């Protein structure tokens, strides 16, 4: 009995508790797919330069769960997503998050090299105490489990909006306020260039 209790946290780490097959059904009936797309490549309305919905295919399980909890609590503010987030149970959330997390990685392009955005992403800017984005979001923006989400291949319009929201403080749900701190010194031109670079990397 006690041995089992000790083991449980490790089992939880090994595999997300949700069921991706049930999650596919629930993401459909709960309408998530209408905006967030149904497959890893198509991504529904999340594609294209106008896409303001986040791509969820290939995103980290824990990150998806945290965002839904933050929408529910109001820690991350968005009226429509608050309604969607409070409309699903924790069990549904586990399955839906497992479904999206199991989809292939977000589509990558071939971002242009040697740009200001690449320089910022890879090396940051010591003069402004800006750390390299790679240090948390990983090479090619593939994310680092337990540290920061996947951003590489995410939609450009969505990325740009989020960076503006971190900068203005209207989004402030990152632990320790790190993303607000890093977005603050960025110019609007840098945000646009970073969003383009990250979406194509
Ligand atoms: C009518 C469109 C719409 C529907 C339906 C919808 N969403 Fe969203 N979702 C959005 C928008 C818009 C955002 C971006 C919010 C913002 O700008 O902060 C978002 C953001 C998210 C995020 C955060 C993504 C990230 O990268 O941080 C998650 C997770 C999410 N939605 C999950 C869901 C789930 C699960 C469902 C179904 C229960 C759902 N959404 C239904 C429009 C929608
Ligand atoms: C110290 C670690 C750290 C560094 C460095 C960092 N980030 Fe983040 N970033 C995070 C974390 C953690 C989150 C998720 C916060 C949350 O829970 O909502 C995040 C979220 C984001 C998001 C929102 C993703 C989504 O799906 O909504 C974007 C965009 C982003 N970061 C871009 C950047 C860029 C560009 C840089 C470099 C200028 C950068 N980050 C540097 C930790 C970091």
UniProtKB/TrEMBL annotation:
GO terms assigned for molecular function: electron transfer activity; heme binding; iron ion binding
UniProt xrefs under InterPro entries: Cyt_c-like_dom, Cyt_c-like_dom_sf, Cytochrome_c4-like, Cytochrome_c_Oxidase_Subunit
Binding locations of heme c 1: 32, 35-36, 81
Keywords: Electron transport, Heme, Iron, Metal-binding, Periplasm, Transport
Cellular component, GO annotation: periplasmic space
One Pfam family hit: Cytochrom_C
Binding site for heme c 2: 133, 136-137, 179
Xref: Gene3D superfamilies: Cytochrome c-like domain
Subcellular location: Periplasm
Post-translational modification note: Binds 2 heme c groups covalently per subunit.
Record-annotated Cytochrome c domain positions: 18-104, 119-201
Protein name: Cytochrome c oxidase, cbb3-type, subunit III
Organism: Duganella sacchari
